[in-house]
Design a protein that fits this description.
Helices cover 45% and strands 18% of the residues. The strands form two sheets. Strands 1-2-4-3-5-6 form a six-stranded mixed beta sheet, with helices on both faces. The relative contact order is 0.08.
Length: 321
């Protein structure tokens, strides 16, 4: 209880205005308010308060279900005793009512239980919360996911870590490649990484910051999900983006999708040649440049041929004399 009081005093110290329920648990009225409060506390007191767990619901019907299941009281008790029962220190809880929260995080069912670790979310994908809200299961889930299981890749590290073109001696890789402006799949992706951590390596690439990787795999969509397995690349084209559907693709249904052989990344010389080729194809001056270069090459070859012919003629004339 002392730890809980310390967390609330920290919130008050930062002059953050929020509402609380009868148990003193903060109830945020918008995602922005929750995120702002969470960031201020974790940034200032990261050693004491490392995680915050959020129970989010989007409508009155879902809220009534939260109350009837006693979820608020369970979360309060879990947070109060988190250190002695689950070995988790600095855990705080919040309730968020926001109809757009689930949609923005690619979540379907209500309510949603989200664990934030220094601002990075993971959604609870255990038994349906509307049927079962088990304190021990959730506590174990929290303690098992205090750290992210997602590998973040870049243009420089992609091939070295995945070995995608050589048959993946590091194992199968399931990778989410996305632009910064795409819909947020982070909470679901983190949950997928947690579920598959013993069978697959789950990675992520921000292709806005790493355009070479996007070019290598000819990615034009806002986001793509690729499975790299034994030198082959499978592209997920399903409509569902929940943890169950993505895990099923990674482990079973990928066999029903078409694949492409993964080619090795281009060498620096090949990259320059490809850039020149693309420029010649797309630039308004490309055709003119190509004609000019071709003319120069043809003229050079013609000059060399003529010079060689002249030398041969001179040689023959000397022999005749």
């Amino acid at each position: 209880m002392r730890l809980r009081l310390g967390v609330f005093l920290t919130l008050i110290w930062h002059c953050v205005t929020y509402q609380t329920d009868e148990n003193g648990i903060p109830v945020f009225t918008s995602k922005a308010e929750m995120i702002e409060t969470m960031n201020e506390v974790t940034a200032e007191d990261a050693n004491q308060m490392k995680t915050i767990i959020v129970l989010a619901y989007g409508n009155d019907k879902c809220e009534k279900h939260v109350e009837s299941m006693g979820m608020r009281q369970v979360m309060f008790e879990m947070v109060t005793h988190s250190e002695e029962e689950f070995g988790v220190t600095g855990l705080a809880a919040a309730f968020l009512k926001d109809k757009d929260f689930g949609k923005s995080h690619s979540l379907k069912h209500c309510p949603h239980l989200i664990l934030y670790r220094n601002g990075r979310p993971i959604v609870y994908d255990g038994d349906n919360l509307h049927l079962r809200f088990n304190r021990e299961d959730i506590g174990h889930w929290i303690s098992s996911n205090l750290k992210s299981h997602v590998e973040h890749l870049s243009d420089e590290t992609f091939e070295h870590l995945t070995q995608a073109s050589t048959g993946s001696t590091t194992g199968d890789w399931m990778i989410w490649l996305h632009k910064s402006t795409c819909s947020d799949l982070t909470a679901v992706w983190e949950a997928l990484a947690s579920r598959l951590k013993y069978s697959k390596v789950v990675g992520e690439v921000d292709i806005t910051l790493n355009p070479k990787t996007a070019e290598r795999f000819s990615l034009t969509e806002c986001q793509s999900i690729l499975l790299f397995r034994h030198g082959k690349r499978y592209t997920y084209t399903g409509d569902a983006f929940d943890v169950h559907a993505l895990a099923n693709f990674a482990e079973v249904s990928y066999k029903n999708f078409e694949y492409k052989i993964v080619k090795p990344p281009l060498s620096p010389f090949d990259e320059k040649v490809e850039q020149l080729t693309n420029w010649l194809k797309t630039s308004e001056y490309g055709l003119i440049t190509l004609i000019a270069v071709s003319s120069l090459l043809f003229s050079g070859i013609l000059f060399l041929v003529c010079q060689e012919s002249q030398q041969m003629a001179n040689t023959a004339e000397k022999k005749d004399k």
